[in-house]
Amino acid sequence: MAKYQYKNNGPSAEDRALDVFADLMIKKIESVSSNWQKPWFTKNALQWPKNLSGREYNGMNALILMFQQENKGWNSNRFATFERISSLNFDDNRKPLVDKEGNKLPFVTVTKGEKSTPVMFTSFTVVHKETHDKIKYDDYKNLPDDEKLNYSVYPKLQVYNVFNIDQTNIKEARPELYAKFNQEYEEVQHNNEKETMEISAVDTMIKNDLYVCPIKPTQQDRAYYDSNKDTIVVPLKEQFKNGEAFYGTLFHEMSHASGAQNRLNRFASGDHFGSPSYAREELVAELTAALLSTRYGMEKNLKDDSARYLKSWLSNLKQDPSYIKTTLFDVKRSANYISTRVESIDNRLKRDGVNADFSDIREQNKKDSALFIANENKIIDKPKQEEKEEENINTSEKIEENAQETEHQRFRR
Questions:
Q1: Minimum mean pLDDT among 48-62, 90-104, 191-205: which range?
Q2: How far from 80 is each of 33, 187, 318, CA to CA, in Å?
Q3: pLDDT at position 26
Q4: How far is CA 189 from its chain centroid?
Q5: Among 42, 66, 238, 336, which is most buried by a count of CB atoms within 10 Å?
Q6: Where do the Polyvalent protein metallopeptidase domain residues begin and end (predicted)?
Q7: How many whole angstroms separate alpha carbon 342 and alpha carbon 202?
Q8: What gap in Å lies between CA 279 and CA 134, rounded to an integer?
Q9: Which pLDDT does position 125 carry in this prediction?
């Protein structure tokens, strides 16, 4: 498994967490490998993970917790640390909770033998460069850009271990509390007529050209992001077997577009079809699409064209401890990049209805496109990779020569 970076007292909490993440990813990819038509997440994992207060976990942690939720078959999407679960036994003054008759309530605890799942959070310390006064990170984010220059920001990655409430005795000891936590755990009801499934905000985004690059549904049989033209092309919705397949494919290509140099900058002009970096980008796009599909209560199957990279993904996960970390962080950023834009449109539709004005979003997209063109003009073509570098790619994973994908078509399907 992962090759730890040992310190004096052994592997760090981050290393151990990444090892758990890698194990879960390997199990999932091996499961998907055995059946390409199997969705990334099935019924048990189609609810977004939350803590006991109802706050949602972020993209990277949500992904891991959903993998674990499906793997273990838990029926709840609520997670908490051991300390938080223990706190359910006491009031605000740390006195044991009692019932109406004054009897102590049954003690809630983690079931013996259950193992936790690590999650990662980044905290930020913000310090004024001259006065050394500290301010909250949320306050820092609200400062004007020129004032932000007066502060130094220090990120710190922290690892916490959480348990699903199905790993506790809460259901037996405090059934009313278990029911309270699970009252928001709604059974995902798939649309019986999936052909008519709609995500209004996404449909509006396409119709009104509100994504960061044009999305062009076209009567043809391929879906791809053309990095040369900065355009997404997908078949018409009615060409897909159902709405889930359409939106899942679209989210995949939207993720590729988010990785352009003037956006999240995940890939460079030297990346070429079939390379290890290209394979990694496919994994980022697949997991991003799986996360976003789950967010909207849909299943996401592995894209056929991505299946060729399964062996490469497994090999990298098993050999390179940094692979899982950088990949999951990129998935988090990609999913957030897309979801914030979809939610912005959704909120405006809810507020203003069909008369909603999107001119500000469209104007920002024009600026984004102008920046894209400026960056593309600065790119100097790199020489072709030597054959020697290709030896790192397993021959069974190489792409047929007749694909003849060019550098400028590296994410075309």
A1: 191-205
A2: 32, 21, 29
A3: 82
A4: 22
A5: 66
A6: 218-324
A7: 6
A8: 42
A9: 95
CA distance 180 to 151: 43
* Residues 192-211: b if buried by 16+ CB within 10 A, e if exposed: eebeebebebbebbbeeebb
- What percentage of the chain carries pLDDT values higher than 70? 75
Cα 153 from chain centroid (whole Å): 25
Q: Of 57, 257, 273, 76, which Cα lies nearest the Cα of 183?
A: 76
103 contacts: CB under 8 Å, gap ≥ 6: none
Rounded CA-CA distance 396/100 in Å is 68
Distances in whole angstroms, Cα of residue 325 to Cα of each of 2, 16, 61, 117: 11, 12, 12, 16
Q: Is 105 exposed, middle or buried (0-12, 13-18, 19+ CB in 10 A)?
A: middle
What 8-state DSSP symbol labels residue 351? Answer: H
Read off the pLDDT band of 164 (50, 70, 90): very high
Element spanning 326, H or E: helix 321-352
In one letter, which amino acid is 149? L
pTM: 0.71
pLDDT of residue 129: 96
Q: How many residues comprise the chain?
A: 413
CA torsion 157→162→164→170, rounded to 10°? -140
Give residue 191's region: left, alpha or beta (phi > 0; psi -120 to 50).
Answer: beta
Q: What are phi and psi of 117, to 5 degrees?
A: -120, 130
Q: What share of the chain is helix, strand, coil (3-state, %, to 5)?
A: 50, 15, 35
b/e 9-24 (16+ beta carbons within 10 angstroms → b)? eebeebbbbbbbbbbb
CB-count exposure of residue 323 (10 Å: 0-12, 13-18, 19+): buried
φ, ψ dihedrals at 216, nearest 5°: -120, 95
* Rounded Cα–Cα distance for residues 35 and 299 (Å): 14
Three-class secondary structure of residue 142 per DSSP? coil
Q: Alpha carbon 246 to chain centroid distance?
A: 19
Residues 6+ apart with CB under 8 A from 350: none
> Are the beta carbons of 66 and 24 closer than 8 angstroms?
no
DSSP 201-228: HHHHHHHTT-SSS-EEEESSS--EEETT
- Answer for the pair 129, 50: CB distance below 8 angstroms, yes or no: no
Q: Which token pair is 343?
A: 């939610």
Q: Which token pair is 166?
A: 């199905």
